[in-house]
Specification:
CATH architecture: 3-Layer(aba) Sandwich
Number of strands: 8
Helix content: 25-40%
Number of domains: 1
Order of helices and strands: HHHEHEHEHEHEHHEEE
CATH superfamily: Vaccinia Virus protein VP39
Largest sheet: 8 strands, mixed
Number of helices: 9
Strand content: 5-15%
Shape: globular
Length: 286
């Protein structure tokens, strides 16, 4: 995060006074979080979000599988970090709407004292999150833009609850592919990692340009629909995604399809095309 301990790059929902523009979020336009919710079969979405998802599924019928795989990957990552590694502080960036098996539920099952802070820039997400987390003193949510790394000291929810002098797990599940190249997601991650203690972990899942030419063409069409509906979304190459984890030591098996990262067991069904589109990796800061 920052070179200063106990500081954080985000605004708390109760203290947004800077230029974070919440007016651009409208219930008449699709949102990233609500579209993911619709993909996962949730109920916190609107007709406009379902229309966007339906158009994407027209191009890629198995698209919900990509959302599910990214979510299941995150669950396995948090279980590994909390239960095996012993990390007890989690920053979940671009967390999205609450769903089954949230980060705090997985982490606190392994360690009831684990601290989880969710970050999202969608006011609808934060409103739902605050209602869900009201009685959990080890879990908090902040309305913030995680790309604004330099605004570290202005977020009470993070500054009060995360000790940056100790290892932290920085989670980017399906968030960085919504940061366009011109906003330099590689620099965002690099600056975020700079303030984390040695022994911290970075977890990234991301939509990937598949090697198969036919699927690559499908990915290009889905990307175009993302931009048409929600104004963001970038499929990146394996090399571009690996570069997001620069400065970390990758945990085995490295960058792989999300479904192949520490699977719980043999697959119960055959592969779906959308599974080729989402990859994940975890890296440790030395």
């Amino acid at each position: 995060m920052s070179e200063r301990s106990h500081a954080a790059p985000f605004h708390d929902a109760s203290s947004v006074t800077g230029p974070l523009d919440v007016s651009r979020f409208s219930l008449s336009q699709p949102s990233v979080a609500r579209c993911y919710d619709a993909m996962l079969g949730g109920k916190d979405n609107y007709a406009v979000d379902r229309a966007a998802v339906a158009e994407i599924r027209g191009v890629l019928p198995s698209a919900p599988a990509a959302a599910r795989e990214s979510r299941q990957w995150l669950i396995r990552v948090v279980r590994y970090l909390a239960g095996v590694v012993g990390i007890d502080q989690f920053l979940d960036c671009g967390s999205g709407l609450p769903t089954a098996e949230n980060t705090h539920e997985v982490a606190q099952r392994a360690n009831p004292e684990a601290m989880v802070v969710y970050i999202d820039h969608d006011p609808v997400v934060v409103a739902h999150g605050k209602a869900l987390l009201d009685d959990n003193e080890h879990t908090h949510i902040a309305l913030a833009d995680f790309t604004r790394v330099e605004e570290l000291c202005q977020v009470p929810a993070v500054a009060r609850n995360i000790d940056f002098s100790r290892p932290v797990a920085l989670l980017h599940g399906s968030s960085l592919h919504h940061v366009p190249d011109e906003e330099d997601p590689w620099g965002v991650v690099r600056r975020s990692l700079a303030g984390l203690a040695s022994g911290s972990y970075l977890a990234v899942s991301h939509m990937c340009v598949p090697r198969d030419p036919e699927m690559a063409a499908v990915a290009e069409r889905v990307q175009a629909l993302w931009h048409e509906w929600i104004g963001s979304g970038r499929f990146r190459t394996e090399e571009e995604i690996t570069a997001l984890l620069a400065g970390t030591e990758l945990v085995e098996p490295g960058l792989v399809r999300a479904v192949d990262w520490w699977p719980d067991g043999p697959p119960v069904r055959g592969p779906e095309p959308a599974q080729e589109l989402v990859v994940g990796a975890v890296g440790r800061k030395p």
